[in-house]
Amino acid sequence: MTWWTRARRRAAARRACAAERTGPPPSGFALLPWLLMGLGSFSNLLQGKAGNPWVGGLGLFAFNSLYIYVTFRAFDRAKRQAPSTRLALLLMGLLTTGLALGYGGNWLLFFPLLGLATGATLRGRHMGRVGVLLAAYAAALAWVREGWTEAPNIGYATFLSCMVTAAILGLSEAVRELRAAREELARRAVEKERLRFSRDLHDLLGHTLSVIVVKSEAARRLAGRDLDAALAQIGDIESVGRQALTEIREAVTGYREGSLSTELTRARSALAAASVEPVVRQSGAPLAPQTEALLGWVVREAVTNVVRHSRAARCEITVESAGERVRLTVTDDGTGVTAEGAGTGGTGLRGLTERLAAAGGSLTAGPAPQGGFTVTAELPVGPEDQGAEGAVPVAVES
Fold first, then answer.
1. Are 190 and 147 a contacting pair, CB within 8 Å?
2. Most buried residue, 27, 203, 217, 326, by most Cβ within 10 Å?
3. H helices within 224-321, ranges in order?
């Protein structure tokens, strides 16, 4: 089982635990118990205290049906904004008005239920106005039917049920959306880290294995005629292997910072072992660690391609830091072919292009006009680079 599979299982377990703590998403079942407020009207029908009981019974059945339809659709954004839901809410309001005017008394309690359904459905910034208008409308009808005694109570209950329902359900929905956004950000962070890790391993192992192969071939060629030189190459292979192990451990932990000077030294060694004449020129003020790290990756990848594919006899590496930009150029006199033929090269160069673009720089790679292949990387001079401009400029050629 890979570490990625284990990480995914642990993440799934954490999401399951979070779901258990927060419970399932709310649904229309949470609003069904409020229909018990209509038991007074149902009791009036059973006791014969309501005129036209068949009309009242049909009205009660229709109200309950509309209430269930509206509230169950209120927990899905697309459904509650659908015209059918708004039409059902309007019919519910007309039915409530008719039952309240026709029967009064306990039938006025349908207005708080109407407010509850309205708050669950019409959430938004205009909910305050809607709640006030609905409460005033309910109070006015209660005054017409029962006088001032019931009007304030019905109006307050309607306003309270409307606003509290809208606030609670709106807050619950916002919390769940934030949790979903947080999980999406965490998933993207994991994918980004996986991409970084794969790029680092590609650049590390690709360069290191290329150097080992080249030095092994050199040791094999020298073994028959110059044993001391062959042993020196074998010693270099051992040193490169040990260094690669250290770098891989650092890359896994995410703390690896490349050094441009170290990469240039390794580039000279690798090119010389591959019978390619190295020419390194470096000028300008010292660079910030982050800039050096990015340019070090470019040197590593470009030299790896030269050793593997170019069949070159000479490779020039130039680092120029002047003004607000620093430029690195790696040019060879080979066939002008990279790992995938002509163009931008293999996975390493594409990955480096994205890295430099994220840092405000650029990377171009392609056949040179005079033949061979050229890789050019440019980066802006960061604050740390600018602070170092007062230092003694570096001018090295080898």
1. no
2. 326
3. 227-253, 260-273, 289-305
